[in-house]
Amino acid sequence: MDRVLPKRFWTTQRIALSGGGILIAALLAYTFFFADRRSKLNVEKDKITVSNVTTGPFEDFIAVTGVVQPLKTIRLDAIAGGYVTEKLVEGGSMVKQGDVLLRLENQNLRLNFLQSETEANRLVNDLQNTRQRLRVERYSQRKALSDLDFQINQAKDVFDRQAKLFKDKVVSEQDYVKAKLDYEKLVEQRKIEAESQKYQEDNAKMQIQMLEGTLARTQKNVALWQQTLNNLVVKAPVSGLLSSMDIEVGSNINQGQNIGQIDDLNGFKMRVGVDEHYNNRIFTGLKGSFEYNGEKHELEITRVYPESKNGRIDVDMVFTKVAPKGIKRGQSTPIQLELGKAAKATLLPVGGFFSDTGGNWVYVVDNSGKRAVKRNITLGRKNPEYYEVLEGLQPGEQVITSSYENFGDNEVLEF
Predict the structure, then answer these.
(1) Which pLDDT score is estimated for 361?
(2) Burial of 234 by CB count in 10 Å (0-12 exposed, 13-18 middle, 19+ buried)?
(3) Distance between CA atoms of 390 and 289, rounded to whole angstroms?
(4) Long-range contacts formed by 351-358: CB under 8 A, 24+ apart
(5) Is the pLDDT of residue 11 over 70?
(6) What pLDDT, in 10s, does the model give residues 113-137?
(7) Which pLDDT tens digit goes with each residue over 250-276?
(8) What gap in Å lies between CA 205 and CA 329, rounded to an integer?
(9) Can you state the angle between helices 173-230 and 107-167, rounded to 10 degrees?
């Protein structure tokens, strides 16, 4: 006889549905709470550059290019203008001090010189005539005083006799008074004559001084015009190599115009262009070095030019010892310019990543070696080989240092 069985709640169908729901819920919970939702990009490891972060001495230097120049370069500027009548030396020739290089002609200068010389001769004649005239006048003045002295002596003799006779009541008072007045008049005239002659003498001295001063200035002008005429003959101020002189016969040269330069070959220096980014770190006394013919040569900055051209500033560097043999003007060579002393630091090799991140973050390879994760860092100084790491990286870690141009904004790179 059949029996009715009780109905079961957990049927096979319900068990299957419940298990599926739990599985889906667990998957959703894992996805929401535990799954890595960072953006990822698959890359080929053999197409990127991975570098190790290391510890070592950071050498604070930059690589620059120096051009060999003579230690001294003397510019040839035209002291006097004119047109070229003769060119005796071509550019690229060795010259000695005093050698004539060019001859110029300037008719206006010659005319001014002749006028000044004529004026000087006229003043010389005027001065001689004035001195001669004053000498003659001085004789006339002495003669006038001598005549007055003679007349005074005569008048005094008459006055003394008249006074004695008037006292003895031999002559009248009128004769006595007349003799007295005649004598006193002559004495007064001599005083006036003496004062007049003194004034004339002082005036004559002043005239002579003025003429002498004018003559001296005119003669100085003559000497200057003569010197200017002499400058129409252009001579080498020093011995050396006349490196350039682009002037031809018949061309006109203005006063102050550059007509060439002479290089002193007794020494050389390096003209170096430095990025203006380092402007506040460049000063006289900084050291540098370069290799030439297998030997290392030391340099030192002696001059920093204040002007910036095309984002670069120029400095002059001289050899601390003798310049290397065989070096020639115009040669260029890479120079290692030291900006500071070496110091221990965490080092990251230089790479193309910097142009994409500005040095603010990098991709760091994890321990598995199968992925690289974006990480914020802080970089300090830079030399041609390494960046100085201030924060964010530890020695032994690996960093992608090639360009990040194709990685977009992905946070994880998978190899």
Answers:
(1) 93
(2) buried
(3) 28
(4) 351/49, 351/51, 351/401, 351/402, 351/403, 352/401, 352/402, 352/403, 352/404, 352/405, 353/399, 353/400, 353/401, 353/402, 353/403, 353/404, 354/387, 355/403, 356/403, 356/404, 356/405, 357/404
(5) no
(6) 888 888 888 888 888 888 888 888 8
(7) 888 888 888 888 888 778 899 999 988
(8) 65
(9) 170
CATH fold, domain 108-230, is Helix Hairpins (1.10.287)
Interval 23-72: pLDDT, tens = 776 666 555 555 456 688 888 888 899 999 999 998 888 889 999 988 88
* CA geometry: angle 180, 182, 185, nearest 5 deg: 105
Torsion of CA 390, 393, 398, 403, to 10 degrees: -60
Q: Which residues pair with 337 in a beta bridge?
A: 62, 288
In the block, residue with structure tokens 């006339």:
140
CB 270 within 8 A of CB 329: no
Domain topology for 40-59+343-414:
2.40.420
Question: What average pLDDT is seen over the chain?
Answer: 85
Q: Give the containing element (helix H, strand E) for 188.
A: helix 173-230
Spatial distance between the Cα atoms of 192 and 182, rounded to a whole number of angstroms: 16
> How far, in Å, CA of 63 to CA of 385, rounded?
10
Task: State the DSSP string of 216-265.
Answer: HHHHHHHHHHHHHHHTTEEE-SSSEEEEE----TT-EE-TT-EEEEEEEE
Tokens of 178: 């007349």
pLDDT at 409 over 70: yes
Pick the CATH number of 62-67+266-338 from 3.30.365.10, 3.40.50.1820, 2.40.30.170, 3.10.20.540: 2.40.30.170
Beta strands (DSSP E) in 138-245 are: 233-235, 240-244
Residue 390: the pLDDT is 93
Q: How far is Cα 286 from Cα 300, in angstroms, rounded to an integer?
A: 6
On whether the CB atoms of residues 369 and 326 are closer than 8 A, the answer is: no
CA distance 412 to 41: 6
Residue 313's pLDDT is 92
